[in-house]
Amino acid sequence: MKIQTPLTDAIIAQLHIGDKILLSGTIYTARDAAHQRIFDEINNANAEKRLPRLPFNLKGQIIYYVGPTPAKPCEIIGSAGPTTAYRMDAYTPILLQMGLKATIAKGERNQAVKDAMMQYKAVYLVAVGGAGALLSERITKAEVIDYEDLGAEAIRKLEVKDFPLIVANDIYGGDLYKSGVAQYARKS
Questions:
Q1: 165 vs 126: CA distance, rounded Å
Q2: DSSP for the chain?
Q3: What is the DSSP pairing of strand 155-169 with strand 123-126?
Q4: Would you state the pLDDT for residue 183?
Q5: Residue 169's beta-bridge partner residues?
Q6: Could you tell me if 54 and 170 are in contact, meaning their C-beta atoms sit under 8 angstroms apart?
Q7: What is the Cα–Cα distance from 127 to 162, expressed in whole angstroms?
Q8: What pLDDT is recorded for position 132?
Q9: In which band, very low, low, confident or very high, does the pLDDT at 179 lie, cut at 50, 70 and 90?
Q10: Are the beta carbons of 76 and 141 closer than 8 angstroms?
Q11: How many CA atoms lie less than 13 Å away from 120 in the CB half-sphere?
Q12: Topology given in CATH for the domain delimited by 2-187
């Protein structure tokens, strides 16, 4: 299934665990340090009763948990493989509440994130770990847009074309990691 960003509730409603998608459009990168800064800004803004000043508008967007390696000459970006998702689980529910529609990483999500995905109509997409060099070939443009001091963990705006992903968690409570284990156990 081919999907174009930004994501809408109608697109999200069509996605079910196990669906293989080819994503095209704009996505953003953020890892641990960037998530902490965004989280701190949201908390400070709430305490000061103002709108948070975020690096990009979260509504309908996707965050890819990646810290790409430096690009070689004539490359758009270096190897861009997914980071393990659970490291961002503490931050994810608030971002989903603010309109984020999907995250991309590898590995399982905790129950609070899965509940927030159902509540705020968002999905978790997995990219194949260990295939960072191949995934980087699907990135057509990359630019640092904030937190440049974080180096590889800076927030980047990426343009992707037919970026291969699998739906791991959907808005219906589906969990590919759990159903995959259950399916394997039945075959044993």
A1: 6
A2: -EEESSP-HHHHHH--TT-EEEEEEEEEE--HHHHHHHHHHHHHHHHTTS----SS--TT-EEE---PPPPPTT-SSS--PPPBGGGGTTTHHHHHHTT--EEEEBS---HHHHHHHHHHT-EEEE--TT-HHHHHTTEEEEEEEE-GGGGGGSEEEEEEEEEEEEEEE-TTS-BHHHHHHHHHHHH-
A3: antiparallel
A4: 65
A5: 124, 175
A6: no
A7: 12
A8: 84
A9: confident
A10: yes
A11: 25
A12: fumarase (3.20.130)
> Would you say the pTM of this structure is higher than 0.85?
yes
d(CA 64, CA 85): 10
CA neighbours closer than 13 Å in the CB half-sphere of residue 48: 10
* Rounded Cα gap, residues 143 and 138, in angstroms: 15
Q: What is the pLDDT of residues 89-140, one digit of tens each?
A: 999 999 999 999 999 999 999 999 999 999 999 999 999 877 888 899 999 9
What tokens appear for 94 in the block? 């608030």
Structure tokens at 54: 């975020």
Dihedral pair phi/psi, residue 148, rounded to 5°: -55, -30
Q: Take residue 22 and report the two structure tokens written for it.
A: 């080819």
| Cβ neighbours, 10 Å, residue 141 | 13
Task: Supply 46's token pair.
Answer: 């709430």
Q: Mean pLDDT for the chain?
A: 94
Q: Rounded CA gap, 185 and 188, in Å?
A: 5
